């Protein structure tokens, strides 16, 4: 049968849109793009960067930007803080992420994906590094941040929680890095809500461990650190400080971090 399908022969009888209307009337569409959850740990990562602008440099380190990696399967968050955003910084963060996170995943011949906007990862140096690590880029369409909605919502949840903790503790803006880091921990150890109901917390799905919630303390509260340099018998045996969360280098331990 060499006849053309009828759909190809159909003629549109409506008049063409006038050029003036085509130029002056288009609007931006924010149609929701459904995102399907990965069924394998570490298979799909959402990546984004936030910060800069008028944000105050963080205490002690002077950082102004947050790099965020989120796993589609477990919904766990990994954050890294930097003073600036460029290829060199991005490659440094990716190397740390690979050493601390990707090395925990079992070896597989399947490709792993990093989904991001057309920003920090869209450069020849960074894309070359990603190919060497057997990763595949997935870029969203320009001007469509909703296509990377999981990372965008993660940032909003983290910032909202960090902002509330800082307000409750009465601490100034330079504490934002420690508040953000602790907010990520809280989000990682809380159950996640999906379309099918609540699921296990990201911490359990990633590490296979149940977090010891009895170790949690109120962020920004007064804390006392034991003075290990003992002086005379009647000198103070502790030093007052502020509890600013758990040490980020030990995700499965319970080392408290204090600012004295």
Secondary structure topology:
Layout: H1 6-9, H2 19-24, E1 44-51, E2 65-71, E3 77-82, H3 87-100, E4 112-116, H4 124-132, E5 135-139, H5 149-169, H6 176-188, E6 192-194, E7 197-199, H7 202-207, E8 222-226, E9 238-246, E10 256-259
Short description:
The chain has 260 residues and is an alpha+beta fold. It is 28% helix and 21% strand.
State the separation between the terminal residues, measured CA to CA. Answer: 84 Å
Portion in strands: 15-25%
Low-confidence stretches: none
Task: Quickly give the structural class.
Answer: alpha+beta
Overall geometry comes to elongated
CATH superfamily (homologous) name of the domain at 44-212: Ribonuclease H-like superfamily/Ribonuclease H
Total strands:
10
User: Which strand order spans the largest sheet, edge to edge or round the barrel?
Assistant: 3-2-1-4-5
CATH class of the domain at 44-212, please? Alpha Beta
Described by strand count, sense and barrel closure, the largest sheet is: 5 strands, mixed
Mean pLDDT: 85
Helix/strand order: HHEEEHEHEHHEEHEEE
Explain this structure.
By secondary structure, this protein is α+β, with helices and mostly antiparallel strands. It has a domain of 169 residues: Ribonuclease H-like superfamily/Ribonuclease H (Nucleotidyltransferase, domain 5). The protein contains seven helices and ten strands. Helix 5 crosses helix 6.
List the main descriptive attributes of the protein structure presented here.
260 residues; alpha+beta; Nucleotidyltransferase, domain 5; 5-stranded mixed beta sheet; 7 helices; elongated
């Amino acid at each position: 049968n060499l006849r053309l399908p009828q759909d190809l022969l159909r003629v549109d009888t409506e008049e063409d849109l006038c050029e003036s209307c085509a130029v002056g009337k288009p609007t931006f569409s924010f149609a929701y793009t459904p995102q399907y959850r990965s069924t394998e740990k570490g298979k799909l990562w959402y990546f984004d960067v936030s910060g800069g602008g008028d944000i105050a440099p963080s205490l002690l380190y002077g950082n102004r930007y947050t790099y965020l990696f989120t796993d589609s399967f477990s919904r766990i968050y990994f954050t890294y803080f930097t003073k600036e955003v460029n290829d060199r910084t991005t490659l440094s963060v990716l190397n740390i992420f690979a050493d601390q996170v990707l090395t925990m995943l079992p070896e597989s011949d399947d490709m792993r994906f990093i989904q991001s906007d057309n920003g920090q990862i869209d450069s020849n140096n960074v894309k070359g590094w990603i190919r060497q690590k057997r990763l595949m880029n997935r870029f969203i369409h320009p001007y469509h941040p909703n296509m990377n909605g999981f990372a965008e919502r993660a940032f909003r949840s983290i910032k909202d929680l960090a902002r509330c903790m800082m307000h409750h503790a009465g601490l100034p803006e330079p504490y934002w890095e420690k508040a953000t880091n602790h907010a990520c921990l809280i989000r990682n150890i809380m159950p996640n809500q999906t379309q099918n109901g609540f699921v296990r917390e990201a911490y359990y799905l990633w590490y296979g461990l149940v977090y010891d919630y009895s170790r949690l303390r109120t962020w920004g509260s007064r804390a006392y650190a034991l003075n290990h340099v003992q002086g005379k018998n009647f000198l103070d045996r502790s030093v007052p400080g502020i509890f600013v969360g758990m040490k980020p280098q030990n995700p499965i331990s319970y080392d408290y971090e204090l600012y004295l």
